[in-house]
Design goal:
Structural class: mainly beta
Number of helices: 2
Distance between the termini: 82 Å
Helix content: under 10%
Strand order of the largest sheet: 3-2-1-4-7-8
Length: 486
């Protein structure tokens, strides 16, 4: 077991797999030896083996080796770090692998062949847990060999087998510690998830690289949950089906520079969102996929000086989703421009270009909070071909900018309602292909309804006749602005 000073001690009945000879005239073989005493309180121990008659087996002077626990060595020369481990709370190091190699039979010095992670069960969990899943983006368990001189576990080639997750089973009390061994190396996407049955009580992902070394213990601290409010930009899975959500960056020249972090329901703290450094389609760099179960939310906020999109179409970032779940998008969109202080966000040209481009899982954007000012092409193709969208956000800007709403809802063929509060729509192409040719309802401001000339022509030429245009004072037939009710 491991004590409070991170020292590993032997305990009576610990078992090792020992390779040697019981007698000089025998072939070398594997034996299971049991600890029968720990004379110095666990720092050293005596191990014995019994023959079929229950008598102690005495070993000769040949070179020999041993593994702990005995179950680590199965048959032949096959060694395997298990992916499923039952943890004994009274013997918390029982499952941690060690190796010894010696030229004398009376003394074996064991080494931890893996790095040991010391994980504290967060006190902020809603309940104690019975399962802990530890995972990374590369293999952390499976068949391995031991270096002949450095006593370090080296995983064998994966051969297409996914060994990226270790599951710990047991009774894990909040505030206590659990230990897990992983081979020495550098890991990205390291994640710890705490479970009660099949229910996740919370998780934490570290998207930065984590370097660990064999024969060392590393504390893993899980911080309390992040403080989030529903006025922050977020998605909600509004169905009972799961949905995978991700971001993608289109970069015509160079590499992705926009950085963002996220908080998912039940996680501990904000997590850095990671993008691939390799293009997968044209000039697109995909980001990590995050699965939302029914009812779960995920919040995003910007962390870099680089804008989410820039002028022109050479650099933009958009949200992508797949699987059968449906999404609503809500909260202040300015968190994507300034995650720490959205009131200081600067909306540049093409600020939210293609932001939800082709996202067929979004059905409701009525809770999305947009700023009261606009910039050139800021919402260009924002919801382009979001084919399941039925409710658009309220558009509070009173003075429009060139192409600011151009193609904003184009291809949203299930769109039912949009509210636009502009009173000056004279900017060039500000409403070009604004909405699709469907039977929707557009709510407009009184001031816009009562102006004539250029503004009226812009409305009638860009809003299809199928749309019903209304405000608080009555309906407008979309043909003659001068005849509108006062």
């Amino acid at each position: 077991y491991i004590d409070g000073n991170n020292i590993v001690w032997w305990q009576v009945n610990d078992q090792i797999a020992y390779f040697g000879k019981a007698r000089a005239d025998e072939k070398e073989n594997w034996y299971t030896l049991s600890c029968n005493s720990t004379p110095d309180n666990g720092g050293a121990a005596y191990f014995t083996a019994k023959n079929a008659g229950g008598e102690d087996i005495h070993f000769g002077q040949e070179v020999h080796e041993a593994y702990y626990p005995a179950s680590l060595h199965t048959t032949g020369d096959v060694l395997e770090l298990p992916s499923n481990i039952n943890v004994d709370p009274e013997r918390n190091a029982k499952h941690l692998p060690m190796y010894a190699h010696s030229s004398g039979p009376h003394y074996l010095e064991f080494h931890n062949i893996c790095a040991v992670l010391k994980i504290q069960i967060p006190t902020g969990l809603s309940d104690d847990c019975d399962k802990i899943e530890v995972s990374a983006r590369k293999n952390i368990c499976g068949k391995f060999t031991v270096g002949p001189s450095d006593y370090k576990a080296v995983l064998s080639a994966p051969n297409g087998i996914d060994n990226t997750k270790i599951t710990l089973n047991g009774t894990f009390t909040r505030g206590n510690y659990v230990y897990v061994a992983i081979p020495e190396g550098t890991y990205s996407g390291f994640k710890v998830e705490f479970m009660k049955g099949t229910t996740s009580l919370g998780s934490k992902t570290n998207s930065n690289n984590m370097e660990v070394h064999a024969n060392k213990i590393y504390p893993v601290t899980i911080t309390p949950g992040a403080v989030v409010t529903d006025d922050m930009f977020h998605f909600t899975n509004t169905s009972s089906n799961s949905v995978k959500i991700s971001m993608r960056q289109y970069v015509a020249n160079g590499t992705p520079e926009y950085s963002i972090e996220y908080y998912k329901s039940g996680q501990f703290g904000w997590n850095t969102y990671s993008f691939s450094t390799t293009k997968t389609k044209g000039n697109e760099y995909p980001g990590e996929e995050i699965t939302l179960a029914g009812g779960e939310k995920i919040y995003f906020r910007q962390t870099s000086a680089k804008p989410i999109s820039t002028g022109g179409t050479n650099y933009y970032t958009y949200f992508y989703a797949e699987e059968d779940g449906t999404l609503s998008v809500s909260g202040d969109i300015r968190y994507l421009l300034n995650g720490s202080n959205p009131d200081n966000a600067v909306m540049g040209e093409n600020a939210f270009l293609n932001l939800f481009f082709g996202n067929e899982n979004i059905t409701d954007a009525s809770g999305l909070i947009l700023p009261s000012t606009v910039s050139k092409s800021c919402y260009f193709s924002m919801f382009f071909y979001c084919s399941e969208l039925t409710k658009g956000p309220s558009l509070p800007a009173t003075t429009l900018a060139e192409s600011c709403y151009y193609l904003m809802f184009s291809g949203c063929n299930k769109l039912e309602t949009v509210t636009m509060l502009a009173t000056d729509v004279s900017a060039t192409n500000c409403l070009g292909s604004f909405v699709p040719n469907v039977n929707g309802t557009l709510t407009i401001a009184n001031g816009l309804q009562n102006i004539s000339g250029t503004a009226g022509a812009t409305i009638t030429s860009n809003i299809p006749a199928k749309w019903t245009i209304i405000n608080n004072t009555g309906s407008w037939n979309g043909k003659d602005p001068a005849s509108q009710p006062e």
